[in-house]
Amino acid sequence: MKWMGVIFIVLACSGLGFLVAGNYRKRPQQLRQLQAAFQMLETQICYSATPLPEALLYVSQRCHLSIAPLFKRAGERLSSRQGVTAYTAWKQSLDELYKQTALNHHDQDILLQFGMNLGNSDREEQIKHLQLLQTQLKAEEKNSNEERQKNERLWKYSGVLVGLLVVILLV
Amino acid sequence: MIMKIVCGTNHDQVVNEKLHSFPERIEREILQFLSPAIRQLLLSLSPVTWQAVQEIRLRLGSPLMLATHLGDMMIDEKGRVTQELDQARMIGVEDMAQTIEMISQSSLYAIEEELRQGYVTLPGGHRVGMVGKTVLSERQIKTLKHISALNIRMSRQVIGAANKVMPVIIGDEGKKLYHTLLISPPQCGKTTLLRDMVRQLSNGVEALNFQGIKVGLVDERSEIASCYHGFPQNDVGVRTDVLDGCPKAQGMMMLVRSMSPQVIATDEIGREEDALALEEVLNAGVKMITTVHGSDLDEVSRRPVMASILHKKIFERIIVLGKSKGVGTIEQMITL
């Protein structure tokens, strides 16, 4: 019975540590996937002038699964013709879904900022906004890689170690 | 010899018969493009009211207005018709922004070209005109921003609107078509009549023993066929080739060269290059059906360009529209 408790505590703590470490690992990946997705959106907007609802759904079908819901939800909301503006649809989708991604508050702010200009200007300006977004995402990706190197292992090891510490103190 | 037939008929009865499904059509084709708040207000209007409506007007900071042929109507907060300015529902920034998002599908970049022209065509052929601040680039209008007023013009096709006119422009037991000019003040059913003439010429008129002919339609302002993504939203007949959004003069010559039409139809001539193109068309042996703004023949013939066209006795039939007995009243049919 005692050993079961010990194993449970160690597993729980290291699991938690791995979870946090996992976020540090996934964030740069997802930031990269976002850049690819927005590249697709740029093509849709600037070369084929696809209306936004369609363009968002198009991107959601082709981008990485981890970020696809973000585009899908916004696209669906816009297609429903309930009078939502592109910004509202984008914001709602972001609010609902960003917790399921590895993105942090800072990334969310960048995406929200971009949403304010989504769709409401001519192509030339849309390109500018999209390029600014790409630069920002790239910078964040670089940051997140550095953070990953610092923190990923730290959290993995400390999870296990904290688990062992608790066990030692309790036994 | 000028033979005048004055006939005070109108096509209102036809309008009534054809529009019994109008409210649903309005909901599907127009109201879904308005901001939800305004949509809700307009949904409470009666079908009878809708039949009179020609335009829905949204101006920032001004009342929501419906233009009818009887005058303007304002709508109050509860969706009732009112004449009192202080009770009328005012259009706010939110209404305008949402409506523009709905019309453009949140994609202003996708209607860049249309913004430059100042109007967008909705599915169903209704046209939304807009004004705002123009952005210039090298003296050309680049786009519109800060859109401040919208005008949704309802397009209503009236099948059979030209029934009374067809026997006049077709002669020789269905073998001959006359060059025809329609004269009409704005909003008297000019485009509606022209559209139905095109449809009947293209499909043929059995009662007159007239076989359908190839029609070339230059639809400079997308009002006649009202193409949406290339598809005519109005029935313009099976032998009609539509050149959409093309300047009239260039379009007429393009059609003569490319599509071998037997008749060319176009709306609102009046510029010098139109007159030149007109002659080109006639020289190619193609019949011409066109319209011009004006209240009667005298007024039209006082304009230099029109005077020279009329002087050459090109047109063999002239039809004058008015609204003395409702929109679309045929006031005069003149045989020259």
Task: Explain what you see.
The complex is a heterodimer of chains A (171) and B (336). Chain A is an all-alpha fold. Chain A contains six helices and no strands. The longest helix of chain A is centred in the C-terminal third of the chain and has 48 residues, at 123-170. Chain A is elongated, with a radius of gyration of 20 Å. Chain A starts with a helix and ends with a helix. The model of chain A has no long low-confidence stretch (mean pLDDT 88). Chain B is an alpha+beta fold and 336 residues long. Chain B folds into two domains: 3-11 and 156-335, Rossmann fold (3-Layer(aba) Sandwich), CATH 3.40.50; 20-153, Beta-Lactamase. Chain B is 30% helix and 30% strand. In chain B, the strands form five sheets. In chain B, strands 1-21-20-11-19-18-14-17 form an eight-stranded mixed sheet, with helices on both faces. A seven-stranded antiparallel sheet of chain B has the order 5-4-3-2-8-7-6. In chain B, strands 9-10 form a two-stranded antiparallel sheet. The longest helix of chain B has 14 residues, at 190-203. The A-B interface holds A 45-46, 49-53, 55, 78, 81-86, 89, 118-123, 126 and B 32, 35-37, 39, 97-98, 101-102, 104-110, 112, 115, 142-143, 145.
Quick gist of this model?
The complex is a heterodimer of chains A (171) and B (336). Chain A is an all-alpha fold and 171 residues long.
List the main descriptive attributes of the protein structure presented here.
A: 171 residues; mainly alpha; 6 helices; B: 336 residues; alpha+beta; Rossmann fold; 2 domains; 7-stranded antiparallel beta sheet; 12 helices; 21 strands
**Rg of chain B computed from alpha carbons, rounded to a whole number of angstroms:** 21 Å
Succession of helices and strands of chain A: HHHHHH
Helix content, binned percent of chain A: over 70%
Q: Describe the strand arrangement of the main beta sheet of chain B, using strand numbers.
A: 1-21-20-11-19-18-14-17
Instruction: Predict the CATH topology of the largest domain in chain B.
Output: Rossmann fold
CATH architecture of the largest domain in chain B: 3-Layer(aba) Sandwich
Taken as a percent bin, the fraction of beta residues of chain B is: 25-35%
